[in-house]
Amino acid sequence: MISVIIPTFNEAAVIEETLRRAAAALRSAGEDFELVVVDDASADGTAERVETLALEIPVRVLRRPGRMGLATAVLDGWATARGDVWGVIDADLQHPPETLTALAAAIHQGADLAIGSRYVPGGGTSRWTWVRRFISLAATHMAATVLPLKLAAVGDPMSGLFMIRSSALQDAHLNPLGYKILLEVIAKAHYKNLVEVPYVFQERERGASKLGTRQYAEYLQHLMRLALGTGQFWGWVRYGMVALAGALIDVALFANLVEKWAWAPVAALPVAIEVALLSNYVWSEMITFHGDEASGFRRGYLKRLFRYEWICLPGAALNLSVTMLWILFGGHLLFAAAAGVISGGLFNLAVNIPAIWRTWGRQLPEH
Hints:
Layout: E1 2-8, H1 15-28, E2 33-40, H2 46-52, E3 59-64, H3 70-79, E4 85-88, H4 99-108, E5 113-117, E6 124-125, H5 130-146, H6 148-151, E7 162-165, H7 181-188, E8 194-198, E9 200-201, H8 213-229, H9 232-259, H10 265-288, H11 301-328, H12 333-358
Parallel strand pairs: 1-2, 1-4, 2-3, 5-8, 6-9
Antiparallel strand pairs: 4-7, 5-7
């Protein structure tokens, strides 16, 4: 059986259509299912509307005493679920209920976790402004940057539409904050096969958005909590130590080649940058991403090296450009090299971290 959890807060204007469309889609696919509405004391009669439909479709209401948040609503719904597959969908019709059948099909075909995704081929957003698209993509990229080993390979870890086998959540110790329950699930659930199913996110036609400053702040806090809870933070510490060593090598080698060996800066800088990149790669292999094996190179290290070099090329080019411009305008050699290293490092931090960590594609040990 599939148990679909639908959190609500003042969704009386749309909840009936959501439930009818979800039930029709799952029935047409021959699924055994239940719909569980978790309502946070809506003042507009949402729960009462749901109860009037209970004779027509398999739906029930779990009432909560106040506005306690979407993520905890999902957990409370799962706690009462009767199915062995658990789903989540918003009540506001921005997630087309018909997508539930595609998620269920993915589970039947062997997926442990099936995610409705806006950012895979076939997915998208309907009428978003460029500002809203930028905010959404920036938040997704931020999540993949803070938790790269968990999220870098997932196109839409911010989705609120997904299904998961209940067995994948046994002993997962979920402790979400805010409204992005999927982040918690991806980071802590025990799954092998993750599938993303495309869907087109719709504009809200009725009701009001529940997002505000508080929700955005909780999102940032949730990311930090997950970084600590999954062990990713210590991966970042190791990665930071390697990056710092590489930066020192870059600056020191460049200064020595120019001042002691009389190399031209334009010739010395690419050599210094490349040696630093090689150092970073070697120590990342041996320290940051060595996993359960003995420290040292593993199979496929040349392929990973070429990929790593290619990903880091824009940051290296920025490093070179900033350093040479600083020298051109009369800056001190060491300050110029430091400015270049910082510029390239910040670029990689802001843009390239998910891709860099995906080079190794390894999971941190579960805690």
